[in-house]
Design a protein that fits this description.
Radius of gyration: 14 Å
Distance between the termini: 29 Å
Shape: globular
Largest sheet: 6 strands, mixed
Number of helices: 4
Strand order of the largest sheet: 2-1-6-5-4-3
Order of helices and strands: HHEEHEEEEH
Number of strands: 6
Strand content: 35-45%
Oligomer: single chain
């Protein structure tokens, strides 16, 4: 099992953050531009934990070289059920340097966008303080 999955399933957000490279790039399923850097990515992931309920990983896939991983999940955002996937790329030091999240269906993505949008000022403040 991938350490990111273990940390998320244990709700250990400090361990999640420790797995991120300083120059990590986070690509959101609901924003046009990627978010650069560890402080902002960590703040986004902390907020997502609050937004998702009934979250669980259902499948894990890895490349032969162990640098690319896909972690399929299901969750709820409010009353909307979603399925999605965390795509992780590991740098040479074994840190996550690229994370892209995809979700479906559209109604679930819209619910996620609204829930995260309502928290984005707090996310930005947390990232600036960190």
């Amino acid at each position: 099992m991938h350490p990111f999955r273990e940390a998320v399933e244990a709700h250990d957000l400090d361990a999640v953050e420790a797995l991120l490279a300083e120059d990590v790039v986070f690509t959101s399923p609901v924003a046009f531009k990627p978010y650069p850097g560890k402080p902002l990515t960590a703040a986004i992931l902390r907020a997502v934990i609050e937004v998702f309920s009934d979250f669980r990983y259902v499948r894990e896939m890895s490349s032969e070289d162990g640098r690319d991983h896909a972690l399929a999940f299901v969750a709820k955002v409010g009353d909307r059920e979603i399925s999605g996937c965390d795509f992780l790329h590991m740098n040479e030091a074994g840190e996550i340097d690229d994370m892209m999240v995809m979700v479906r269906p559209l109604s679930g993505a819209q619910a996620l966008a609204a829930a995260m949008g309502a928290r984005f000022d707090a996310i930005s403040r947390e990232a600036s303080a960190g």
